[in-house]
Amino acid sequence: MPADQWFRNAVIYSLNVETFMDGNGDGCGDFEGLNGRLDYLESLGIDALWLAPFQPTPGRDNGYDIRDYYAVDPRFGSSGDFVEFMHEAEGRGIRVLIDLVVNHTSDQHPWFKGARGGRGAPRHDWYVWAGKRPSDWQSGMVFPGVQRTTWTFERRAREYYFHRFYDFEPDLNMANRRVREEIRRIMGFWLQLGIAGFRVDAVPFVIEVPSPDGSSAGLDFDWLREMREFLQWRVGNAILLGEANVPPAESGSYFAAGDGLHMMFNFWVNQHLFWSLASGDARPLARAVEQTRPTSPAMHWANFLRNHDELDIGHLPDDAKGLVFESFGPRPSMQIYGRGIRRRLAPMLGDRRRIELAKSLLLSLPGTPVLRYGDEIGMGENLRLKERMAIRTPMQWTDEPHAGFTPAERPVVPPVDRGLYAYEAVNVESQRRDPDSLLRWMIRMIRLRKECPEIGWGEWRIVRTNRTAVLAMLYEWRERRLLCVHNLAHAPCEARLKLDVDRGDRLVNLIEDDEAIADDRGVHHLELEPYAYRWYRVGGTG
Ligand code: MG
Questions:
Q1: What fold, for 110-162?
Q2: Domain boundaries, the chain
Q3: Ligand 1 centre distance from Cα of residue 113 (Å)
């Protein structure tokens, strides 16, 4: 039954408690504030939240450096506030996913503090050490240009420790059975508090087996199976949503034929989508969608436009990379790590119609859409902030000081207060009142997406057209058919296509009052405006 795999037809909304809403007036977002905004999220129509890490942290990597897995950072409230939030979310039918960041801990975690004592010290073997500096100490950095090495000398231990990310984020030693037991305990703890699953951070690094001679012994997919098995024994319908930016040929293993991840972010489609947006040519996106076609029912994608990180285009060919940089992040200050763009969606695309096109694609690509807070109102970035903080500014609620995010004098992160995307111009309150706003449009489109379970559940194929700018996809599920047509170019065009399905001659537009009838030969002639997006029910809405 469809309801058993709730994530297939869900709309997920991602946010960071720190920057969403400040409830106690100290300048920092918190669970009390988030609680007060659940009505907003409910009326937006989302099914699940994905919360960025909210556990105690020294805060050197936006919370991804955790120093206690079993608590709530006091800046965000107490454990009681968290449970209160879970209760309120449940009452609204909103499921909660949380980040599982176990590739590494903070170097301030008591485990690492102990491990620093050297061989024989408590939990020394919970981390990855090498007596001599490995030959590849300067390769494999996650943040090139900012991070210099993956092995750092620890004076007290007189050894080098391995860190795939920053040097203050030592990798846990997954080969150690006791580390795995502890990770299961962390999962069990939060599952017991009612969460619906985990967004698993940096999956390839969680399962990689590094060795002290510098070579990687490969990936241990059994570890993923263990996590899945444990999760499912504890909570039958909880899920693992994995972050793994790997090419299509490698992604199948992460689903482990139904014993691994339930869902993975489709980074491949994400990058090719921006290539298509930049070129006005739908073919790179069409290719990427085909290349990531699920080969088993166990595979399911989570699609996204922007997330909390840079727009990573590292997998694109050089000429495409150049084009995307030139189109969406031409200034050096907009680029980062040599592979990405640290900007939000709205300023990159600019044109309202083009933003709608991108969001319509997100909602209609095969899989589950994951939205980023603030993108529903078209928030911008603040390039004066360091690295990825540029896109992690407070939610813009009103045109009051600090965007209505906090009454405090100093917000934890300054909101965007200059230019076209300043909170005076872009905020929830004004868009709620305006029937033509992006927010109101988004609410209608989310509702439409949920009325089209063909996308999450059905079979799909790409329909050939006479236009390279046009992507046409046909979804079928339980006798229902949906045709989504997108014109990625700035120029209008007439697209011709033939469906060759039952009652395929009549198409009813689900967004606007319009119908398309095929000619005598069964061919549809669709007049598409620039950046057009059309969702058609095939054969009528009955
Ligand atoms: Mg606060």
A1: Oligo-1,6-glucosidase; domain 2 (3.90.400)
A2: 3-103+177-450, 110-162, 458-538
A3: 29
